[in-house]
């Protein structure tokens, strides 16, 4: 197991991301978010875009899992979907590069295996995290020499769109069938669920929206308040 990946065992990884249409968008804000996460006990940071990665790298000594969310007309793959994107993420200072490893066509018409092979050849010494949505994708990534698996994209592909919460079944299947460390990620909204992930055998747990996206946190509170008020009205 890669030393950087090993360092993340048993750690809470906080995803510090804000897209251009979100109130907290900005590398300086994400850097401060990463500092706050570190002060709170995070053992790693997940960050989007070379700019944010550079800012966070300057602000914390925690391991940084870097990615780059980019859209291409010829592909639904979204998380670091090309080798060149991965190279720029690495150059920005990411310790580990996360990529879309779903079994969907990647930019340029590349299959998953073609993409991962090109990626491994281009960055032979860089730890790669495969963001997958199914067990089969995870096993393909393992066969291509990827270093760590993450359940990130369960619920975000056509095959898994019926899954609306955290995919514990996928986590358990990957742990049972793969020899790679498996990171739990995707809709881990409570400390209790994070604890369950570790109890199931997750190598680490990534939490994003429940910590670093106040608009999403507010929505969940507002929904509960609204439901409570409606229940009171009926009574």
UniProtKB/TrEMBL annotation:
GO terms for biological process: carbohydrate metabolic process; N-acetylmannosamine catabolic process; N-acetylneuraminate catabolic process. It catalyses: an N-acyl-D-glucosamine 6-phosphate = an N-acyl-D-mannosamine 6-phosphate. GO terms for molecular function: N-acylglucosamine-6-phosphate 2-epimerase activity. This is Putative N-acetylmannosamine-6-phosphate 2-epimerase. Keywords: Carbohydrate metabolism, Isomerase. SUPFAM superfamilies: Ribulose-phoshate binding barrel. InterPro entries: Aldolase_TIM, NanE, RibuloseP-bd_barrel. It is an enzyme of class 5 (isomerase). It holds the Pfam family NanE. Belongs to the NanE family. One of its GO terms (cellular component) is cytosol. It comes from the Bacteria. The keyword Transit peptide does not apply. Pathway: Amino-sugar metabolism; N-acetylneuraminate degradation; D-fructose 6-phosphate from N-acetylneuraminate: step 3/5.
